[in-house]
Amino acid sequence: MNRDVVARFTEKISIGDGCWDWVASTNSDGYGLFSKGSSRKAHQVSYELFVGPLPHGRICVLHRCNNRRCVRPSHLYLGTQKENARDRESAGTTFHQYGEDSPLSLLTEADVTKIRGLCAAGGMYQKDVAAMFGTTQGTVSKIQRRATWAWLQ
What we know:
The protein is built from six helices and six strands. The chain has helices spanning 3-10, 42-50, 81-91, 109-121, 126-133, 137-144, and strands spanning 13-15, 20-22, 33-36, 38-41, 59-63, 76-80.
């Protein structure tokens, strides 16, 4: 075990009676990030440093405590992606961001309603409607076909 990496890692955690909380940078999902050659999730690095290497394949490091910032080795265990999804679902930590709640969305519900109205009225090409809203013709097509934003009337 590389003592320099362990020292750098432990400087970034707050060790308490329960969880060991990551107090350095996090990703947009709230998981700690640690740079060990490349940026990696801190709980995965913790598992490797204090428990052992991760097996090859699609294995996840899961949290018994459901605390995304926790890096305490005894709170971490290995599981499949399916087990990880089931664990998130049962803990109620799964969240779905879609529509204008998604950080990737360029459009609002009002925009989508206007796009559908313009397309239904005819007389405009999808590419022209797309240009009005700063999106692509493909996006307008999906909106019009209700392949996206399907819940909107």
